Amino acid sequence: MKRIILICGLISGAIVSTFMVASTAACYENGNFEGSILVGYASMLLAFSLIFVGVKNYRDKYSNGTVTFGKAFKIGLLITLVASTVYALVWLVDYYYFVPDFMDKYADFTIRQSEQEGATAAELQQEIAKMNEYKEMYKNPFVILLMTYAEILPVGLIVSLLCALILKRKGHATEAA
After folding, report:
1. At CB < 8 A and 24+ separation, what contacts does 85-90 make?
2. Whole-number pLDDT of residue 170
3. Which of 7, 47, 112, 153 could join 12 via S-S bond, C-beta 3.0 to 4.6 A?
């Protein structure tokens, strides 16, 4: 089971991290972050498809074709944790070494978007204050890690839950009972 979790988690983490780095580089370069959230969450869903692969592999090859909901969810959750940790660590490296002014560019983009959408002066000041707060929070690596985990973990939890529901299968002896 550990092998499945590590392999699926590392591959999943590599997939989502590759998309994240590429998307960040593209957005960072052209200053347009529109659509990056969609790409990010789509890549998370793609990467977390390995939860299905991992649970099914465990059920079919190592558990005689049976797996409880709890065991399937646990496997999915552990794959999620491995992938999310890879993602968070890659983001820290990318942020600190390659895009250290990312928050400045993102804040500028967000404020420009608010202006283009016709925000009032008061709304614009609120947006500026909010972005300044985020920039301040991003000075702490621990906060960055927490925010990054908060991005990806819920997606993995939902996929783990769905995979556990789909793939659970009781043994022949318990089916008759």
Report:
1. 85/13, 86/9, 86/10, 86/12, 86/13, 86/14, 86/16, 86/17, 87/13, 87/16, 87/17, 87/20, 87/148, 87/152, 88/145, 88/148, 88/149, 88/152, 90/13, 90/17, 90/20, 90/21
2. 77
3. 47
Is the pLDDT assigned to residue 15 strictly greater than 90?
yes
pTM: 0.88
Residue with tokens 């709304």: 123
CB 161 within 8 A of CB 55: no
Q: The tokens of 108 are what? A: 């500028």
Is pLDDT of 152 > 60?
yes
Contacts of 157 (CB under 8 A, 6+ apart): 77, 80
> Domain map of the chain by residue range?
2-170
